[in-house]
Amino acid sequence: MGEMIEIRWHGRGGQGVVTAARLLAEAAMEAGYFIQAFPDYGPERSGAPIRAFTRLSRSPISLHSQVQAPDLVIVLDETLLGDPTILEGLKPEGWLVVNSGLPPDRVRARARGYPGRLALLDATRIALEVLQRNLPNTPLLGALARVTGLFSLEDLTRYLHHHLAPKFGEAIVQANLEAVRRGFEEVRIDPGRIPAGEWALEASTAGMALPWFELPRGGLILDAGNAVAYATGGWRTFRPVVEMEKCTHCLYCWLYCPDDAVRVAGGRFVGFDELHCKGCGICAAVCPPKAITMVEEARVMAGA
Ligand code: SF4
Ligand code: SF4
C-alpha cells in the first residue's frame, strides 16, 4: 500500500461503523500515523445504511474530501453488497473486507462478480458469541490488521486497550479484545485475481430520484405520511420470528413498533410487514411471553 491508506466503511446504523473508523484511526495514531476519521450519515435511524472514512498517512494529510478511491472497502453488513456504490473507486490492488460466513464465490456473486482481493470474517457470529451483541466492528478491526499488516495483534490490542479502558470496565474491554483476537485469527483470505487496469464500476445513481444538484435545498420532507414509500425492510440485519403458540395477542409489539410493521387483523397479531420491518428488535424486547426471537437476516437469506 502507498504512503496514504484510505478506507471506506459501509454498514448500518447501530453496527458501530463510525466507532470502527475512529478506533482504527486512534490505534494508527499510536503507531505514528497522521489520521482522519469521519462519518457520512444518511437517515439517523437504526438499520439505515451509513458510511465512514479513515485516512492514515506517514506524512500530514491535506486531503479533506470523502474517500473516493479506497485501498480498502469494509462492509459490516453483507445485505449491502448489492448496492452498486459499494465497490465504487476501489483500487485494483485494494481489498474488499466483508462480514460474512458465506463462501467466497457466493460473496463475489453478490458483489456483482468482484474479482479482486477478498477477506471474509463471520464477525456477527464472533460478536454474538463474545460480546452478546450484534457489534461486528471490533472483530473486523482484527481482520483488518491481519489483511493489511498495519499492526501486529499485540500492538493493536495494546492500542485499543489504551483507548477503551478509560470508557469501559475491564470486562467489556477484555471481551472486545477477545473479539479482535478472533477476528485476526479467523479471517479467511481469498486473493482472487487483480484485474488489469482499473476495476471499473460505472458510478450509479440507481435509487436516487434526482441527481444531487437538482435536489431541493435544505432537509425538509414536505409531504406527510410518506414513510410507507421507504422500503426499510431492506435495512434489516436481523428479523423477528414469532412462535405463534406462545403469542397471547396482547399487541405490545404493535404498540411499540416504530415502523408500524406489525400486522394486526381482527384485534389479533398476524405477522410482520417484511417490506417495512427494519429489524430493530423492539418488538422482541417488549413481548411479555418472549414469543419473538431476532434471527440473523443473512442466515435466513442463505436458508440456514
Ligand atoms: S416489527 Fe419488530 S423488529 Fe420490525 S421494525 Fe417493528 S419493532 Fe422493529
Ligand atoms: S407482543 Fe408478543 S405476545 Fe403480544 S402480540 Fe406481539 S408477539 Fe404476541
Report what the structure shows.
Helix content is 28%, strand content 20%. It is α/β, with parallel strands linked by helices. The chain has 2 domains: 4-190, Pyruvate-ferredoxin Oxidoreductase, domain 3 (3-Layer(aba) Sandwich), CATH 3.40.920; 221-302, Alpha-Beta Plaits (2-Layer Sandwich), CATH 3.30.70. The protein has a 7-stranded mixed β-sheet, sandwiched between helices. A two-stranded antiparallel sheet has the order 8-11. Helix 1 (17-30) packs across helix 4, helix 1 (17-30) packs across helix 5 (153-164) and helix 5 packs antiparallel against helix 6. The two termini are 37 Å apart. The structure holds iron/sulfur cluster (2 copies). The site of one iron/sulfur cluster has 13 residues, from helix 7.
- The best one-word shape is globular
Give a short account of the largest sheet: 7 strands, mixed
CATH architecture annotation of the largest domain = 3-Layer(aba) Sandwich
What's the helix-strand series?
A: EHEEEEHEHHHHEEHEEHEH
Helix content: 25-40%
SSE class: alpha/beta
Query: What are the bound molecules?
Result: iron/sulfur cluster
The CATH class of the largest domain turns out to be: Alpha Beta
| Overall radius of gyration | 20 Å
> Overall pLDDT, averaged?
87
- Any idea what the CATH superfamily of the largest domain is called? Pyruvate-ferredoxin oxidoreductase, PFOR, domain III
Domain module tally:
2
Number of DSSP-assigned strands:
11
CATH topology name of the largest domain, in short, is Pyruvate-ferredoxin Oxidoreductase, domain 3
User: Distance between the terminal alpha carbons, to the nearest Å?
Assistant: 37 Å
Share of β-strand residues: 15-25%
For the largest beta sheet, what order do the strands appear in spatially? 2-3-1-4-5-6-7
Low-confidence stretches: 200-207
Helix count, DSSP H or I runs of 4 or more residues: 9
